[in-house]
Automatic annotation (TrEMBL):
<comment type="function">
    <text>Catalyzes the phosphorylation of pyrimidine nucleoside monophosphates at the expense of ATP. Plays an important role in de novo pyrimidine nucleotide biosynthesis. Has preference for UMP and CMP as phosphate acceptors.</text>
</comment>
<dbReference type="GO" id="GO:0033862">
    <property type="term" value="F:UMP kinase activity"/>
</dbReference>
<dbReference type="InterPro" id="IPR033690">
    <property type="entry name" value="Adenylat_kinase_CS"/>
</dbReference>
<comment type="similarity">
    <text>Belongs to the adenylate kinase family. UMP-CMP kinase subfamily.</text>
</comment>
<feature type="binding site">
    <location>
        <position position="212"/>
    </location>
    <ligand>
        <name>ATP</name>
    </ligand>
</feature>
<keyword id="KW-0539">Nucleus</keyword>
<keyword id="KW-0808">Transferase</keyword>
<dbReference type="Pfam" id="PF00406">
    <property type="entry name" value="ADK"/>
</dbReference>
<comment type="subunit">
    <text>Monomer.</text>
</comment>
<dbReference type="InterPro" id="IPR000850">
    <property type="entry name" value="Adenylat/UMP-CMP_kin"/>
</dbReference>
<dbReference type="GO" id="GO:0005634">
    <property type="term" value="C:nucleus"/>
</dbReference>
<keyword id="KW-0665">Pyrimidine biosynthesis</keyword>
<keyword id="KW-0418">Kinase</keyword>
<dbReference type="GO" id="GO:0036430">
    <property type="term" value="F:CMP kinase activity"/>
</dbReference>
<dbReference type="InterPro" id="IPR006266">
    <property type="entry name" value="UMP_CMP_kinase"/>
</dbReference>
<dbReference type="GO" id="GO:0006221">
    <property type="term" value="P:pyrimidine nucleotide biosynthetic process"/>
</dbReference>
<keyword id="KW-0963">Cytoplasm</keyword>
């Protein structure tokens, strides 16, 4: 199967005489030479278009990475009607251990602040139900508490973002490891505005998961323990990464639902006292 891509906004000096370049890729997972002799390995910084930064997942030939809004996948644009690269998008990552209350609080945030809630876990479970070719692989990973390869999850997230028509997203349960994080930034060119981190002790999370009662195959003690291990080893480092960039808003998630939401509200709409504090601070330095 061939995929065609259009390059836009190439400065005339490097664009030559053509208006449009059709790059095509074969199933072998690389680009054959184009008129500019473009080979595209996994990550490619073109010597001809140094502003462009193309990446390519060989296992997903249709997934071209669009960075800096300069390269558009025309096929995707046609299919979705709109492209996220056209808009200014707000992304909030919602992270925390399994059972910390991410989904519960996201529902509250949606109701009050007009975000679209995208749960990576829900999207993966829907993909299993849809009978997709990845279904069995995803199901096995979830049963083992393992993290599904990034390209699968990111594709689902991107599709859901495009279909939502919204420009404000709560991305719940993603990124769950360093690979998730780096691939998302690379694929979408987006960074979270901030990361909402639900901090909760393991014993409390375990209690909640064991009484969640949603018929989830992974809410059994054996898988729960595996999920906790993956969380400690792979997900906490991602939270630490964002913390080092000053992006983490930590919430004590061990409290009752209503109290947790009071703390969440402070993040999304700081109370007057806090606004006044910053106003006074700004006045003092101006
Ligand atoms: N603050 C809380 N106190 C007690 N139970 C909670 C709290 N927040 C969520 N729960 C319950 O704990 C379970 C896990 O919550 P959920 O929002 O599904 O967590 P996550 O999305 O982080 O896995 C659910 O049954 C939910 O009703
Ligand atoms: N980014 C993600 C999110 C979830 N998942 C999978 O989906 C499972 C359930 O995730 P979830 O976010 O719905 O639920 P919690 O574990 O947070 O309760 C995880 O244990 C992973 O197996 C994933 O592989 N990658």
């Amino acid at each position: 199967m061939r995929h065609y891509y259009s390059l836009f906004t190439i400065p005339p000096v490097v664009r030559g005489e053509e208006d449009l370049y059709n790059l095509y890729c074969g199933s072998a997972g690389f680009l054959p030479p184009t008129c500019f002799n473009w080979h595209c390995p996994k990550l490619h910084l073109s010597p001809y278009f140094p502003r462009f930064h193309l990446s390519y997942f060989p296992s997903l030939p249709e997934l071209w990475l669009v960075l800096m809004g300069t390269v558009l996948d025309a096929a995707t644009k046609d299919a979705n009607g709109s492209l996220l690269t056209d808009k200014k998008v707000t992304v909030v990552f919602v992270l925390g251990g399994p059972g910390s209350g991410k989904g519960t609080q996201c529902a509250n945030i949606v109701e009050h602040y007009g975000y679209t809630h995208l749960s990576a876990g829900d999207l993966l479970r829907a993909e299993i139900k849809s009978g997709s070719e990845n279904g069995t692989m995803i199901q096995n990973m979830i049963k083992e508490g393992k993290i599904v390869p990034s390209e699968v999850t990111i594709k689902l997230l991107q599709r859901a973002m495009n279909e939502s028509g919204n420009d404000k997203f709560l991305i719940d349960g993603f990124p769950r490891n360093e690979e998730n994080r780096a691939a998302f930034e690379l694929v979408t060119g987006m960074e979270p505005t901030f990361v909402l981190f639900f901090d909760c002790l393991e014993e409390e999370m375990e209690r909640r998961l064991l009484s969640r009662n949603q018929g989830r195959e992974d809410d059994n003690i054996e898988t729960i323990r595996k999920r906790f291990r993956v969380y400690m080893e792979s997900s906490l480092p991602v939270i630490e990464y964002y913390n080092s960039k000053g992006k983490v808003r930590k919430i004590d998630a061990a409290k009752p639902v209503e109290e947790v939401f009071e703390a969440v509200k402070e993040v999304f709409a700081p109370s007057n006292a806090e606004v006044m504090h910053y106003r006074n601070f700004l006045c003092s330095i101006l």
